[in-house]
Fold each of these.
Amino acid sequence: MTGPLSHLRVLDLSRVLAGPWATQTLADMGAEVIKIERPGTGDDTRGWGPPYIEGPEGDTRESAYFLSANRGKKSVAVDITTEEGRALLTRLAEKSDILVENYKVGGLTKYGLDYDSLSKINPGLIYCSITGFGQTGPYAKRAGYDFMIQGMAGLMSVTGEADGRPGGGPQKVGVALADILTGLNATVAILGALSHRERTGEGQHIDLALFDVQVASLANQALNYLASGTPPTRLGNAHPNIVPYQAFETADGHLILAVGNDGQFARFCELAGRPELSADPAFATNSARVANRETLAPQVAEILKTRTTREWIAALEPAAVPCGPINTIDQVFEEPQAKARGLATRMTHAGGMEVPGVASPLRFSRTPVDDTVAPPALGQHTRSVLAEVLGLSDETIAAHEKAGVVEAR
């Protein structure tokens, strides 16, 4: 055993990001993940570039997008529109512990690959469906994409500069956060279902929606509205419940000042040479600072312009006042902490090239993850999986390949 899930097999019928993010996390934890792809084209994101990483002979390339969400998996290229292809997937599902799919609601029923059909042959199967709006409700049949979900589920209403300010208006988050959060919630739900199966032997159907996940992830902003009846608005980099907790200009750039309590604010004021601010009843408590943010924020802004970003960090960090720079992504990977934790990785791809990756954030003391296996080439494992898992002969696999049912490298 190398990972905590190395005893499990996952049949991955998902593509793009939310589903693949979940199955990549399961693969990191040791699960055998069999990624089913369309012959010829594969996962949509294989073509989502540039940038691409090309092989030494120029005959192989993978998009950075695909590489970001598919490490540690086995690629099996099967045409599920054929009777033979559906039969192969049914047999793989029978021998799997988990199935993840992100087809439209009811999209797999016509192939006999829906939960009701597969649970009859594998009652212990944990079947996770990921859709934009879930299996029920008036929007169930709608397609759902991260960008539109960020808008519909409220995230963009609290992201970006305030209306009326320069650059004001709704902004999406710079990564597909609804997809990522849905992938992580799918992983959590699957682990919960596994715990239930260990006690009862029963599998179950998990209904996961991007819309539900993004609404749930509004966290304090959702409760700010439900508790007060007033919808939160965009505050730029400021925090709705804590002050000062935002980005400020410095003498040479910007600094995030993240004051989380009254003690931290008092220490900041002392180091800034303005101890009278923390003694002022208008600013002495967080509640007072929130009520008077429009008066306090300009004063803090003027103070922070007097030193460089690094000078402020050097002064504030020893005093345990949370702060930090706003890094570009190249600067992120140059941070000593990122290097010490090995966050940038390199893997050898089947196409003969070395591809980059980002390390899994999961750190186990007894069952370490394996995030060093490169994402697969399309159909790289078709032969080995069909032979080892289903026991098919070389002749049978070759016949399927000739008929266009499968594609193998």
Amino acid sequence: MPKHLSSIQLYAQQMSEIKRRIKVIDFFLLNTGHALYQATTLESVCLQFRKILELIAFSSLIANKDRYSAVYKNFASNWNAEWLLKDLRRINPKFYPIPIEEKPSQRIGIKTDIIPITEGYLTEVDFISTYKKCGSILHAANPYGSKTSYHFFQKAFPLWRKKIILLLNCHEVHFVDNSGIWVIHMQEDGDDEVHFYKFELMDKNN
């Protein structure tokens, strides 16, 4: 990790990488892109989803490189999504992005209300399920085992994309060993850059 970048800048870089991979997915799903065959096309899309999930999982640990390295080492050796989330939660109980929407506030002195999104996004349960499904298609099929249902993946990809977008489009992130929260905008009017804003609890005594 570049030493000259702050934790939130590194996080924003990870989010930008996710956006690039979403564009690759869109190339295949929306722009009639292909990798010559149906199977290789769907496998290429699945690889992007799996990479995106990994980027989501590790992004909130960048504030503490040593802890990040320990979890990554364990994960790299076993590739179990449930164990991964358990390890991440042990280090940072609030590691998972919190999807929100911002609305103009009607309260005096408050510009914007932050409202949690409660449905339709990629939950931790969805994360585990999606990660496992991605893993299943990225391995060669056992000729004596059950066949891969490529039709299932064709139907699932748009829903996975929609859930990931809703999770990340506007979200809160809590770093390890860091007070306050960061609000992330994956894009804003006028540009396609990732933007971030820090919020701290106000001291009521002041």
Amino acid sequence: MNRIIIAATFWALISCNPQSEDGNKLDPLLESISQEPDGLVGFGVAMVNSDSVLYKKGFGYANIQDSLPYTTTTTQNVASISKTFIGVGLMKAQEEGLLSLDDPVNQYLDFEVINPNFPDEEITIRHLATHTSSIRDNEFYGKKSYVLKDSSLVASELLGVSFQNSAVHNMEDYLRAVLTPNGTLFTKDSYLNRAPGEQFEYSNIGATLAALIIEKASSIPFDQYCKKYIFDALGMKNSGWSFEQISLENHSRLYESSRHEIPLYSLITYPDGGLLTSINDLAFYLKELIRGYHGKGQLLNHESYKELFKPQLTNNHFIHSDNPDLNEGIFISMDEHHMIGHSGRDPGVSTYMHFDSTKDIGYIVFTNTEMDEISYDQYQRIINTIRIKNQ
């Protein structure tokens, strides 16, 4: 499942000047969307500025069978929004002198990562963080990285993804298997026929490799590194990278577009899309990103935030892109409408987290339903509603 940003089709809608919304005006509009038939089962939204939460609410159901409402404390995986935490982690590690973005990745690994088409060209951490490493998600990404929580369930294919009933590899073993020529999951499509640094190619595998480098450089597992330097610092008490780190009582069920329940799953490559969090907790994080952009952040120093948000690419990197006006910071995306953030998609999940860099305002949307024509239209209208209503 490719978690490339799914909000691009409606970024053209968001160049307007948003203003603070009266919840009494938003509530009926969003409630009306939630009550439409055959669409989203549940969703949550938030609007924040650098100081406070302007609006937050859940709609629909986190669990249809038990009639549990979707609330702002409901947790779920947020897909590729997770990658922004790798970016913040890299900048923190660089501040601590543990690594430099321009270091070769092989300086930190116990196995060699080399594009066999360009064996003399080094892949750097910055290449990973800007999706220019030449590493691709080969066919095994969707076949071997998703693992069912309930190991008694039979492995199955659903929504284009093969769910495994046991984790054959841990994260490092999986990366070694995919990225080294003798690896059991290696294919000729594991790398582009382009040198590192030449082409933007969105890579979940590359993102996970960056998280592993944080582990190696810090001698702290990536999930614990995030807890120490991000979750605890921001008061994100209901966030984690595994089911053991959160309360399952608050976890949303996920649904196909037919409203059939999808079994709970995790990812071997968990840093690229496996963050479990809530609207409430992610609002703390988005407020911090807005503060950091304006030179007032607490997680990183001013220079680190400048690097995090600095456009790293040129149009030449987007060789096959339909959106040449997009750009990348350090695991964070931006566009010509001054929107900075990330969106994501996984089975039963679509998410959105962006802020307007010219305004002191940001937006979050979580959904717990697989996208089809109806639910995608609803998803677009939710974002459009919280962005430009009563401007």
Amino acid sequence: MGDVAMTVPVLAAFFEKYPNVKITVLTRKFLAPVFEPFPNVSVFEAEVKGRHQGFLGLWRLFRELKSLNIDVVADLHNVLRSNILKSFFAFTSIPFEQIDKGRLEKKVLTALKGGELKNSLKSTHQRYVDVFSNLGFSFDLSHAKPIDVLITSNKVKELVSGVSKKKIGIAPFAAYKSKMYPLEFMEDVICELNKSKAYQIFFFGGGATEIKVLQNFDTTYKNAVNCAGLLTFQEELQLISKLDIMVAMDSGNAHLAANYGVPILTLWGVTHPYAGFSPFNFGKNEMLMADRSVYPLIPTSIYGNKFPEGYENAMTTISPAEILRNIEKILLSN
């Protein structure tokens, strides 16, 4: 989801310069609401567990895409499936450009063994821009503007209407434990925010286990609402767009909030923003990272799936008090 969300500011900048170009996005149906703000974008569903599964399914997908009379292909993913599609498109005259993920640079970054972090790698957003540039569409990310979302859901209207408090989104989960702030620490943060009575807290997550945890928070804290399982993904995006701040891990929810110009506080464990995956910054973002003097091998991997024993606890070096200070700092400055 994060990779898909990061295309949004890129498309926003693209359409500032090329307002009449039509783009067809190949992705999962679930993610279609991400692209609703763009009238020139249509979503073509990739049924990777259905009719597009396997080699023959990808051949079928290729034929379906070719029938759309597309002029060029921008592969922003560069994975096995898209490489197979590239081999099919090689038999046509349709230009096919792929993202350079900088795999070697990232391998070097995660093999520092405690060395000094000197320079951030190229951002994923800029890598997306480079693909379009190679296809003849040059533009600058500085022209990206936050997306404006119209609230059409009655559920969301009920949640935000009449709320004079600052609206804080908290997305406490991530794909790997090494990227997730300990829940007991996060509850300390939630408890203090709830005590102040100046904030309305909204929780975001997914999956039965996550919903159960968030529902417990909802029940325990008066000024908190669990949105997981309550809202559709489209409704979640509408609510996220109206937040005053989003507190998230190195995860998709941070990127989703960034697209709407929502100020973000991201928490980082064994991954690091120098790998190029920090949320798009409209000048409102802050980041808190695990202490490398205690866990010097950070970043241990790009996605958080590889780390030495004990490093799953790296985020304990970020204190709840530090998070609360940064939330207050961001809210006062915006």
